[in-house]
Amino acid sequence: MAATEKAGTGRPAAGTRPRRGRPGLHPAVRYLGGRVLTALVSLLAVMVTSFFLFRVLPGDPVAALTQGRSVSVDQLEAMRRDFGLDQPLPQQFADYCLGMLTLDFGMSYQYRVPVADLIAERIGPTLLLAGTGTVIAAILGLVLGTRAGWRRGSLMDRVDTGVALTLWSVPSFWLGLLLIVLLASGAGLFPTSGMSSPGVEGAFAVALDVGHHMVLPVATMVAVVYAQYMMIMRSSVLDEMGSDYLTTARAKGLRDSVVLRRHAVPNALLPTVTLIFLNLGRVVSGVILIETVFAWPGLGSLFYSGLRVPDLPIVQALFVVFAGSVIVMNLLADLVYPLLDPRVRT
Amino acid sequence: MSRAALAWTRRRRALAGYARAFAGNRGGMAGLAVLALIGLAALAAPLFIDADALSLTEAEGGRFQPPGPGYPLGTDAFGRSVLDLVVWGARISLTVGFLAAFVSVALGTLIGVVAGHFGGWPGNVLMRVTDWFAVLPALVMAVALAAVMTRSTLTIIIAIGVTAWPTTARVVRAQTLAVEARPFIERARALGGGHAHVMLRHVLPNVLPVVLAQTTLLVAEAILMEATLAFLGLGDPGTVSWGGIIQEARTAGAISSGIWWYMIPPGVAIAAVALSFTMCGRALEGVLNPRLRERR
Amino acid sequence: MNPTEHPPDTPAPEPADAAARPGPDRCLEVDGLSVSYRAGGGEIPAVRGVSFDLEPGSKLGVAGESGCGKSTVALALLRLLPRSARISGRVLLDGEDVLDMRWGRLRAVRWAGASIVFQGAMHSLNPVQRVGDQIAEPLLVHGGAAPAQARSQVVELLEQVGLPAWRERSYPHELSGGQRQRAMIAMALACRPRLIIADEPTTALDVMIQAQILRLIDELVTGRDISMLMISHDLSVLAETCDRLAVMYAGRIVEEGPADAVFAAARHPYGAALSAAFPRVGDPASRRAPRGLPGDPPDPAELPSGCSFRPRCPEVQERCSEVDPVLWPAGPGRTAACVQVLPPEQDTRPPPGRDRASETTGE
Amino acid sequence: APPAAAEAEGADTLTIAASQPVDSFSPFLAQRLISTSIHRLAYDYLTNYDPRTNEPIPGLAESWTTSDDGLTWTYTIRDGATWSDGEPLTAEDAAWTFTTMMEDEGAATANGNFVANFESVEAVDATTLKITLKEPQATMLALDVPIVPKHIWKDVGDYSSFDNDEFPVVGSGPFVITGHKPNQSITLEANEDYWRDPPKFDRLVFRYMPERDAQVEALRAGEVSFVSGLTPAQADALKGTENITVNTASGKRFQGFTINPGARTQDGEEFGDGHPALEDRVLRRAIMRAIDKDEIVESVYGGYAEAAGGYVPARYDTYHWTPDASQRLDFDPDAANEMLDEAGYERGGNGVRVSPGGDPLKLRMHVHNDRPDYVAMGKLLVERLADIGIEVDNRTVDPGVLSDALYSGEYDLIFTGWTVNPDPDYVLGIHTCGALPTEPGTMRSDAYFCDKDYDRLYEQQLAAYDDPEGRAATVKKMQEILYEEAVVNVLTYADTLEAYRSDQIASIQVQPDPGGNIWGQDGHWSWSSAVPAADSRAGAAVSPWALAGLGAVVLVALGGGVYLLRRRAATAGDRE
Amino acid sequence: MSSEADAPGGTEAAVPVLAAEGLEVAFTGRTGRSTARAVDGVDLEIGAGEIVALVGESGCGKSTLARALLGLVRPSAGRVAFHGLGLGYRPRELKEVRRRVQLVLQDPTGALNPRHTVYEAVAEGRRIHSGSTADEEEHVAKALARAGLRPPERFFLRYPHELSGGQRQRVAIAGALVLQPEVIVADEPVASLDASVRGEILQLLLRLRDDHGLAALVVTHDLGLAWNIADRAAVMYLGRVVETGTVEEVLAAPRHPYTQALLSVLPESGAAEPQILAGEPPDPTRIPGGCRFHVRCPVLASGAAQAAGVAERCRSEDPGMLGGSGAAAQVACHWAHAHEAEPAG
Ligand SMILES: Nc1ncnc2c1ncn2[C@@H]1O[C@H](COP(=O)(O)OP(=O)(O)OP(=O)(O)O)[C@@H](O)[C@H]1O
Ligand SMILES: Nc1ncnc2c1ncn2[C@@H]1O[C@H](COP(=O)(O)OP(=O)(O)OP(=O)(O)O)[C@@H](O)[C@H]1O
Ligand SMILES: [Mg+2]
Ligand SMILES: [Mg+2]
Known about the structure:
Strand content of chain C: 15-25%
Main location (chain B): membrane
InterPro entries (chain B): MetI-like, MetI-like_sf, OppC_N
Subcellular location (chain B): Cell membrane; Membrane
Low-confidence stretches of chain D: 1-9, 538-542, 572-576
Largest interface: A-D, 72 and 75 residues
Protein name (chain B): ABC transporter permease
Domain ABC transmembrane type-1 (chain B): 90-281
Largest sheet of chain C: 8 strands, mixed
Number of strands of chain D: 25
Structural class of chain D: alpha+beta
Bound molecules: adenosine-5'-triphosphate, magnesium ion
Oligomer: heteropentamer
Largest sheet of chain D: 6 strands, mixed
Low-confidence stretches of chain C: 1-23, 348-363
């Protein structure tokens, strides 16, 4: 789907309307409180969904874990007990909720470590990958989108848009695999997978090494993602282009580039920034595929491995984490938007 | 000429006008051409691909035969022609794409229109639900749904359809709100039209262009999602789809074995179809959405 | 509107005769201005040979129906038209031709030489910049003023248009329609231009606010030697405000002359219809007698042959389908483009100094 | 002594691609193959397996004796073995390890089954370990239990959560675990004080690479020295590659499927909804005759497999059994059709047969979706069984779903496969009547198979631990019964396909030798014996390619920037 | 063209066709902050065959009043009476009223669904109320012809974008006429039309009244328009009608300072010095006490009210609502009352 449509949904419905507070409460506080409250309710709903959605996953995790290996019935029983699977569902739910509140997501079935530890361990690489990818994609998308919108219909617009949409249409995992074949093993320029080479010591060397490992996954991610930002920016520049205040700016005798930079871009950025924030949340779960293909030791590959078993606590917790990140990003977008757009501020 | 016939002529002329506008969009036309080609190939596939070509036990080719005479795209592990598989795969991929897009668009349109029309608390509640669905990461959600339900094409369709609708609902609701703000809605109400009248006669026809464009764009997304689910091993193993072929190629280690002809064609097919749908969708949007059209 | 600009497609034509060169007393001279838009594969002639000029300190009102090309003329004066527009003719601003100016010079002329007050103040102000900054922007660009200095000038300007100084820190959405229009006016005055173009400055405003704004403009312009081109569809408003009036129809000026005279007794049937459309309250003649013109406003893409007003004209004659009348003297200081004022022997041949209203004045 | 702190530069490193991350470093908990393989390297076991023959050989235990009733085993622990922290390794450590596993549920997680039958374990003195059994046990020379250092472990409170990830991990094997980057790599360094020959490589690195293609590409690029679990296509492709040696080993695993002959508990209570016709042996045997094992070998394994005979893979020739010509259920659809026709399975209108009981032969088939070979075999089976009038509903599902179907007896055909240890006791045991569930859902086998003769033979082989030949004969008889009954059907023994870089590894021990595998050996031979090639320098420091690659990226970025700037300058220019 | 004497209504004491009785409409802000009293107590009657003009500046509640008359917004107090009977708000009752009272909106472009043909747009009302009948086409053609679109068949299949603004407004009017209503409520019916086209539509309204006895409420901010067609005028300020009477009374001899100010700013008014009221249109969320106009009242500011001795009352005493009947000119102004009483007394 073209980014424009995603764009259509982006701006938070409530965000665009100035809200007035009840007497006594500062409107900003009210706005903030309302947003935070909504986010919390969403989070709660996500937690509940996560529990029930994955409870109905068919298959006995213990059986799956032990299949093909010699285990006694007693051992199976013991494992069930360990994981609390012998408890009645309401009890499990209560435990789950209590656990979630204390950030205790239970023990992973397959790793036998607290899921919270696993997540803590894996979140760094994911943030590194997703963060770098998003920053690059956003910059690229914004720059190209602005250019394309400003020169709508030009050869450059058509080429840039065409390339972006083509890359956007390519399945990310497929692109990743191709890159591995072409650039990693074919040309030997980059490592095929993982985040670091063993045996590299020293901060600089390690940074270099990680950077080297990051190139392909980040490139894949950027290639697939930037089109969205670009198309959003393009259409929002186009939207702004019709505005009379740009004619005013031009009538004032400003250079074309100044009109673009000082008037068109800041206005066009408003919807785009929100969308980038909204997308950030999705990107985190979007990296599942890329992490899987490049064996990036992040949350995505953890989720993938959890799903295979199925390792309920991992899958559940990550579902909450992924959805939570979308919620948090939505919240941030809601909070940032008024800072950017005076019309929303009350 | 009767009025009905006249109306039909005029409608045809209007359609022709849209078609002309669409034809003016090179990207859209290219996309349409590719789609027509692939669609035709998919429809006609049973005519020139016999069952044996897809049978594991009857296939005549050698194992992983590189492209050559008789097998323009080589063969797979069972000696089946990859070209045949890809052509056949179009049937499933396109079906999944269309049906999933349809499910999600139908759901999204219904909810979007109702939420937009009624406003107030029912609309709010609907939008809350939508927002909340939109928050759930689509891929994770689809993966979970596909895992929960029995493995089949229908499952994939439902999983994609159910996760993609919030986008449509939001777009449609926004459009509905815009339409509802137009004076002709007030006129319809002043004429005595009820909710159903307003929604069916006024709102729906005016959101349909958006919905149509949205559907086209969603098909692209659904096809990609199908491939992704298949790649994650959640596809229907009994059918030949593009994502499924890639997954099989991957499990066979085709990439690292230099068996590019197993891996590349389905990926290219996915990209081509997704791109074509996207191009068509964008072109349609340009044609049907007067706001964009004005600017051209 | 597509904001991209382009250098004019055709170089401005050489002046037809040297005598037509403007004297230094003309602050604006428009000569044979034609604009057509490329759209949908065809060309839409939006403005078809408009000529007029403006002396320093004088006010010209341009009236006409929607789509007759008023805004196009306004934008053409500063070469602000979208890329799809094709312009020809001459626009001399203080003797310099705007249409073949270099970009750098053009930018210098914009706002400093002539500024524009657009109709939709709502949209003509950048919604995310403070009003003060927007007013200061031309000062910084053209005056090379220091920011602090610009600030004090902004405050001064705001006060001149009756807005308190603290409004400088407001965003456009915090202002009402009238206040926004005031801010626009303040901005237009910022660089002390010689010419202000006001494109429908009061439409969409309430009657009372409209009166306020008109009076404000009047106060500010008079006595500062600023000339003004005011565009409106409301002939009565223009008649009230301006010295001279030009009535446009289908991309042409069809009548021009002193404001009162044109409003009171138009020589062109369209001008007459337009002034009748604004009844005088208390005038028994118009009581229960609304007057208008039958038919539809013209579509610039398919104009009829002969006089383009012919299909709607209440006084249509046979000649109307043959002659496309040009502006012709029609009384003291007045011209009109109607067969009724054309001398009978004059057919299709244009009079000397074609389309030059100024040439025919002062007879 | 602590391992020689191998200096990063110049040390010989062997990098192994691992497709799973470790689950735990605690020998009490670790269950994944990667983890147990690493424990093999880091800990010594009482006994080991001969690299060539797979026979039990002395490990920590130099020698052993058995009481006549077979209930008391006395091991003599090697003198002079030490822990990597320098502490002596004594019988006390072994006794403590076993006792803890017997007493603590947490400690029994991974290897509890080995000690389930233990009465007591005691260290008579520093070098003597005495194990008393409740009943005779055939696996006493195959106790695959890492012996852990009591002095480190005795203070651990909760064995079910102790991860043993304090590096370097104190062990007693040829290597010492020295580092772990979660989900990325595990580093082991050579234990110079190991009582056997110390390893030739200074360092072992297990790199986690879940993608098979990535592994092979990494091998090609020289990032890893060894890759296992190749697909046939990959093996073919790598065969022609310079500096890469492909190792094809006869597999330890069999692949097959079981037929639900009617699920029942030990008490004979029937449950589940297996197709009733499958209780008929004729039908089951006809199904077997409809399947072309050679075709599977060819299309699924690209020839890297062996069409199966008996239950125990051909690799273990002591126990391997092949049916003779008269018994064979070879591929012959006509014969199969004939069998069914005779048995009264009429073909219905749609070509699907109907059992004499009136049930159409529509069978469900459960296939693991995570095993590509099963998936492919499943597809072949569907087509082949259609030829004899059986319609198969191919259900490729998550392993968990599959086990649910199995446990509840709600299946008809189900895929399965077991890794067979040198001692086949376990895989044989799961088909005794005793392995039937005590109540529905508590299955520990993979077929509801129960046969009196089989059970009798099982007891017989169990007691024949001191008569290897007799035991082998019994085991073969058991396989014959399995074959004849056609409930547990073995299709293939897939080869193990591995490859290593011969420019990094000069030689490596396979097991059994010849024709054996490298990854997943019983014992640590592959890695402790691998010899570095003369100029092996894999995986050291930042490769020059890193700089080249990053350089390329920077160049591209710069180029893009310049392009953008120029575009901008150009557009600004034509505005002026 | 009818003369003044022919104008029906006004003096007849018959039950008005449509009336607002003490009508109040308040809009509650979203978060319950402030209540906008858009219509704040209006009595207004529209007799049969009468054209009433409702004039006032932007935001004074004209449209809200018009919409309340059709039941499109619910009054918070008072009632709308149709033939003397209170308007019910159940769907069925509303539907009945909406058959007989029709709304014509300001912007014909917006008021026509761009995807409906002229035929569909006109037939819509009939279809809602009586379904698709065999004589539908006949009725549609008649309505279009009455609205001055002749021959109607030529327009049946046109889409709104193929019509000019004036034609669109005619279509909208035809859509109202097809139901043969008794009253038309026209909310700024010509505001968005070109000056030269405007007269045509107004003539049409007049003709409909004259030929068919259609009553109309014309909402406008344009006093000239009221002068052009209306029988009676009501001047509205901040939710209240502050002056009513025949058009001649109100526009030729305005009594309320607000009406006077409005008239004075007309460009062509002969007034020597326009009285430009300062500031923006007033805010219905904050209606001042006393006379709601007193804060902007030039009479009060100039001291004339003081002189008449009513300044205090202006500030503190609400002059009250005006009765809706058109019988006599009325004004809600202390000063006007005092001023007029003076010479008399
Ligand atoms: N960018 C454009 N592309 C194509 N046609 C245009 C463009 N801008 C204006 N036109 C056409 O040119 C004609 C004159 O337009 P213009 O805006 O000058 O009219 P106007 O007199 O200002 O009308 P209004 O009173 O509605 O502002 C119209 O027919 C209009 O449709
Ligand atoms: N739906 C609504 N919610 C809240 N306030 C409203 C609503 N509709 C109207 N108002 C407020 O009520 C007041 C009267 O509005 P109304 O539209 O009736 O004015 P009007 O006289 O028709 O003005 P105009 O001449 O601009 O059309 C305005 O201040 C407006 O802001
Ligand atoms: Mg204009
Ligand atoms: Mg209104």
